[in-house]
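Design request, tokens follow.
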């Protein structure tokens, strides 16, 4: 598979001079087309900062990030915004939906903001995605009238609306119960099976066990990684136990 994202020697510093630290300390990473990756590590290890840098939601102090061979860090702001809207989807732990809009309008809003002539097309696709995600019939509901799992499914619909090359998820199951978390991970697996790359940040070894590759971060660096075959014969419990064992081994 071709590399979709390549990050080289990424440095991101937080704090004032004399009291600063490298939250990302020369991180290099690659994500292939269609790959399913998770990033694990303790709080403050840099995993969410890395995701924000790779997805274009945050800048870096040095290093390069290539997306489909283009140096993302050299693009102008409007070019970065176009790339983010067109080729990248993002799912947050707490869905960032607007209270004054119904579910359907929340899903289509980011896509139609700069392309109002295509509202009908986006509505049709959003309704199709909602059906696929199991939330058909909720399009006219306010966000206060549905469950957390349904809101997360709506957030996934929004992330998929432009058929992105990669979906980023920042603790996408962190606010959900175990049953709903399992259902959301089933959806991410189906998205990945359809050819879309997925990169998740998670604290949960059970979530990470569903992915092909797990990157472990500590003190702003990727210190280790694990691989599982996409159709591994290992049980989910065996994979999870291997991840927990690796975490103990590297002290995270």
């Amino acid at each position: 598979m071709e590399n979709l994202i390549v990050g080289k020697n990424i440095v991101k510093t937080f704090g004032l001079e004399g009291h600063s630290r490298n939250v990302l300390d020369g991180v290099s990473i690659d994500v292939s087309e269609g790959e399913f990756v998770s990033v694990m590590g303790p709080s403050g290890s840099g995993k969410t900062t890395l995701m924000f840098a790779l997805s274009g939601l945050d800048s870096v102090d040095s290093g390069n990030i290539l997306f489909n061979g283009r140096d993302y860090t050299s693009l102008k702001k409007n070019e970065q915004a176009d790339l983010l809207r067109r080729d990248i989807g993002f799912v947050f732990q707490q869905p960032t939906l607007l209270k004054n809009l119904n579910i359907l309008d929340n899903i289509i809003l980011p896509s139609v903001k700069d392309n109002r002539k295509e509202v009908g097309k986006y509505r049709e696709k959003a309704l199709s995605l909602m059906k696929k995600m199991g939330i058909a019939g909720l399009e006219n509901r306010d966000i206060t009238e549905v469950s957390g799992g349904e809101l997360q499914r709506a957030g996934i619909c929004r992330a998929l609306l432009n058929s992105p090359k990669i979906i980023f998820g920042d603790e996408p199951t962190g606010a959900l119960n175990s049953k709903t978390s399992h259902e959301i991970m089933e959806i991410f697996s189906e998205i990945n099976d359809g050819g879309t790359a997925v990169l998740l940040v998670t604290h949960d070894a059970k979530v990470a066990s569903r992915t092909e590759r797990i990157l472990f971060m500590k003190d702003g660096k990727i210190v280790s990684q694990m691989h599982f075959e996409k159709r591994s014969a290992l049980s989910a419990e065996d994979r999870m136990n291997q991840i927990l064992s690796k975490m103990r081994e590297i002290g995270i």
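Comment from the thread starter after seeing the answer: thanks! The chain has eight helices and ten strands.
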